[in-house]
Specification:
Blueprint (H helix, E strand, L loop, with lengths): L1 E7 L13 E5 L14 H5 L1 E3 L16 E7 L3 E9 L22 E7 L8 E7 L4 E6 L13 E6 L3 E9 L12 E9 L1
Parallel strand pairs: 1-11
Antiparallel strand pairs: 1-2, 3-4, 4-5, 5-10, 6-7, 6-11, 7-8, 9-10
């Protein structure tokens, strides 16, 4: 069984139904080691997405390639990123370990809208190249900084890329499972 994700550069609920690109992410029965290496079989079988653009629309592809992976199990959403960088030895990670990601950091920014609706909460995760995380929760009745999920994450560096893995408990997203669901996911890589 699968969960479907509408993956876009814009906020998930800002994209018209006709513009949505929906992809199926496979369910994982076996455990995933969140270690920053992306060598688990789960990532080979996961939904993968590349071709990031500089901004939305018909602008050219970004100069550095990014590969995003999505999968899930009964209790968690798993996201991974392989961020290629010709200047791998010059990555920026100015943020202290207390969750205040610096806008100059090399990072990924993730928006999750579990109901694809402006009325539903949108969950934001900003994670830099050393795993420092900032989380926000916006939506009807939600205080902007009220979301503090227990996101397990790990990062790594290779010769030509940095990697990031994250495990997000579904219960922190207001879900018991993702089977047969369509969820909005918007991702940006900032460097």
């Amino acid at each position: 069984s699968t969960a479907a994700f509408s993956i876009n550069a814009a906020a998930p609920f800002e994209v018209s139904v006709d513009e949505r690109r929906v992809f199926d992410a496979p369910f994982r029965a076996e455990a995933i080691a969140v270690d920053g290496r992306l060598d688990d079989r789960a990532w080979k079988d996961a939904l993968s997405f590349t071709g990031f653009r500089l901004r939305r629309g018909n602008l050219p592809k970004a100069s550095e390639n990014t590969v995003m992976f999505v999968t899930y199990d009964d209790e968690n959403l798993f996201l991974a990123f392989k961020c290629f960088d010709r200047k791998i030895n010059s990555l920026t990670a100015l943020a202290p370990a207390d969750g205040c990601v610096n806008h100059k950091d090399d990072r990924v920014e993730i928006q999750l809208n579990m109901l694809m609706s402006k009325q539903a909460p949108t969950y934001y995760l900003i994670i830099n190249c050393e795993g420092v995380i900032k989380t926000l929760h916006c939506g009807k009745g939600a205080a902007k900084d009220s979301w503090n999920p227990d996101v397990e994450r790990a990062w790594g560096r290779g010769e030509d890329c940095w990697t990031l893995e994250a495990r997000i408990p579904l219960n922190t997203l207001g879900k018991n499972n993702l089977k047969n669901e369509i969820c909005g996911l918007a991702v940006a890589r900032m460097d």
